């Protein structure tokens, strides 16, 4: 008689699905590239015949061991399938939900879900205005790198970073007492402390041009639009939902676009606070009798103001990642030089010349 199946809601297979190489959330950490001079060269010379004799002797020993032991032992995959919770092959009803691959995989490779032992208050503070801060995680664990991003409400005190990291580790099947738990907590607290003042700052009537770039898996979304910094009625989350619906993108693009726009807004606030952006009106008068306007384009008919979605190859993705790392190092060097000269003079930048290009 086959073993009875557990309810599907008691099982989770999330920690296995995120370990897929096609998912950019959980990737293999690339080894650090060393210098050529650091490589140890062995100048010892060996005879080829001697190495061939060693290889032949090793092959004979392996053959004898296989004959003495009979059939080879079970593979790790066979052991995992043998020790699975249910016996799917022995089910009497073949027309049930187990015929679906995803559900079948959940029962085969899943584990019993751990309930979240966190008590939330029934009534939340509805009078507090949400202040969203973009959080980015980039931590390494057991030869793998976890890259994730989400937004955190600064005025929501019912979930602490420690509790969030505990739930995060449970979902990924990591021990709560591991080093990655402390890394997640410290990363969240550092970014909350860094951006809390900027996120809470109220901006004056200022319009800027945002060149937003966001990539997810092999798709690249790029858009160019104007954003009102003083308007709080239209949030980046609403903008992301409209873009996803209009372009027919997957739902994973909604938090990615909103997170990218939140980072751009915080960077604009920082530049404005440091005096790099002038709130004065930009003269946009046109010559030769043409109409004036920031979006008026007689030749290209406003093609640069349309959203674009491209499908990149693996080579193009790696190339963009390398260029992004170089740009980040260059921006750090330039920002360090600018900070040294801030006390002597302050530069002004126009609102339409603001560089807000984000992730490539």
TrEMBL record:
Task: Tell me if Transcription is a UniProt keyword of this record.
Answer: yes
Compositional bias ranges of the Basic and acidic residues kind: 333-342, 350-360
**Which is one Gene Ontology cellular component term of this protein?**
nuclear chromosome
* Region described as Disordered: spans on this chain: 58-93, 333-360
Q: Where in the cell is it found?
A: Nucleus
UniProt KW keywords: Nucleus, Transcription, Transcription regulation
Tell me the GO BP annotations in alphabetical order. chromatin remodeling
Main location group: nucleus
Q: Does the keyword Phosphoprotein apply?
A: no
Spell out the Pfam families in the cross-references: SNF5 (PF04855)
Q: What's this protein's family per the entry?
A: Belongs to the SNF5 family.
The protein depicted here goes by the name LAMI_0D05776g1_1
Source species: Lachancea mirantina
């Amino acid at each position: 008689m086959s073993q009875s199946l557990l309810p599907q809601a008691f099982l989770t297979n999330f920690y296995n699905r995120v370990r897929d190489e096609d998912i950019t959330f959980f990737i293999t950490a690339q080894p650090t590239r060393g210098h050529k001079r650091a490589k140890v060269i062995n100048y010892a010379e060996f005879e080829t015949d001697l190495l061939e004799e060693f290889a032949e002797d090793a092959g004979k020993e392996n053959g004898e061991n296989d004959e003495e032991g009979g059939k080879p032992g079970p593979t790790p995959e066979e052991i995992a399938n043998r020790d699975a919770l249910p016996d799917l092959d022995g089910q009497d009803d073949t027309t049930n939900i187990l015929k679906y691959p995803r559900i079948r995989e959940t029962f085969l490779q899943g584990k019993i879900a751990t309930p979240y032992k966190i008590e939330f208050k029934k009534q939340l503070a509805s009078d507090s205005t949400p202040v969203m801060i973009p959080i980015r995680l980039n931590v390494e664990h057991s030869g793998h790198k976890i890259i994730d991003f989400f937004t955190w409400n600064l005025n929501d005190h019912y979930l602490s970073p420690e509790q969030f990291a505990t739930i995060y580790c449970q979902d990924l099947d990591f021990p709560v007492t591991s080093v990655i738990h402390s890394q997640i907590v410290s990363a969240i607290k550092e970014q909350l402390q860094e951006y809390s003042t900027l996120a809470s700052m109220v901006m004056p009537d200022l319009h800027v041009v945002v060149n937003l770039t966001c990539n997810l898996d092999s798709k690249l979304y790029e858009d160019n639009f104007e954003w009102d910094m003083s308007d709080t009625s239209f949030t980046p989350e609403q903008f992301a939902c409209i873009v996803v619906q209009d372009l027919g993108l997957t739902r994973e693009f909604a938090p990615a676009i909103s997170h990218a726009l939140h980072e751009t807004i915080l960077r604009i606030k920082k530049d404005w606070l440091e005096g790099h952006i002038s709130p004065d009106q930009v003269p946009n008068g046109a010559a030769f009798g043409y109409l004036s306007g920031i979006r008026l384009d007689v030749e290209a008919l406003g093609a640069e103001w349309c959203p674009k979605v491209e499908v990149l190859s693996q080579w193009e993705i790696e190339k963009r990642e390398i260029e992004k790392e170089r740009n980040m190092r260059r921006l750090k060097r330039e920002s360090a030089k600018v900070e040294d000269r801030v006390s002597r003079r302050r530069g002004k930048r126009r609102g339409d010349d603001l560089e807000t290009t984000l992730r490539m």
